[in-house]
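Researcher: Hi, I'm a grad student and pretty new to this. My advisor asked me to get structures for two proteins we've been looking at. I'm not sure of the right format, so I'll just paste the first sequence and hope you can take it from there.
Model: That works fine. Here's the first sequence with its structure tokens right after it:
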Amino acid sequence: MRRKKDRSCGGNNVSMAQVDDAVVTVLEKRLLDPARLEKLLAQLLERSAGADVRCKHDIATLRIERTAAETAIQRLFESFEAGLVDPKDKDLKKRLASHQDRRAALSQEIDLIERQCGDKLDRIDCKTIAVFADGLKKKLTDPDRPGLRKNYVQASVQRS
């Protein structure tokens, strides 16, 4: 019998290991279900394809701007060679430096976007997802890695 001031729950005590087992079982069945993971993969690849289109568009736009800067530099040189511009003109030097800086900045931005988009040869596929899910299941049930299991269970429960 419980005492009057005892405010503890009158239900059954369940060990933390049993709770962890129950949560990991649900995680394995629901979150790591191959069909669910394939659906998530499809969504990820769809977004990735959209990002690829944006990258290609951005690179094309930047290349057009870089070509315009290069053309402006070329015109300045041609006007100098034709004698239409005084070589001592300070504005000429400023304009040339401005176009050269712009060209360099555009080239750097193009390089950055190309690196970010990169080759998509290492894309994730259904086989990779299955290997990932299987590996995670094994690690979650590995008695030698209780910390991983505990942290993963806590993170999953906190997000729910």
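Researcher: Oh nice, that was easy. Here's the second one.
Model: And its structure:
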Amino acid sequence: MNEGSLPVSALRLNMLRAYYALMAAGSLAVFWPHLVSHSPEWGIESGAQYALLGALAPLSMAGLRYPLKMMPLILYEFLWKALWFVFVAAPLYVEGQMTDGVLSNIFACGIAIVLTPIVMPWRYFWHTYIVARAEPWGIRQIEQGVAASEANG
């Protein structure tokens, strides 16, 4: 199934855009101040964390223009937060070691955990990213695909 062959409503597209705007605003507000005024005490882990999460801002802004093409970014946002819940927050809770910082992260991550299943056009995602034919791996397959599309077009 080709991209665009499965309709997505204008409401759903605008919900995706609002979600991308929320992601961009959150990333800009939380991570970019740390990136531009970094601490010399940062280790590789802290620097990488801020850079990776700071990169969500410009990518999320691309989602405002291309909400369907950027959907894997929303899935990435959902997955890293879900993994954080399972492997960081839950063990801290079980061990009784919750802090104010962890609690505020639970709230921030919880927003994505709740909103993603509501906002994502799952049927479109499934058909476009899971069921659709994969892009070719070899040069011969790519050349055959180009020749076929030129013959049809």
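Researcher: Is there anything I should tell my advisor about the second?
Model: You could mention this: The chain has eight helices and no strands.
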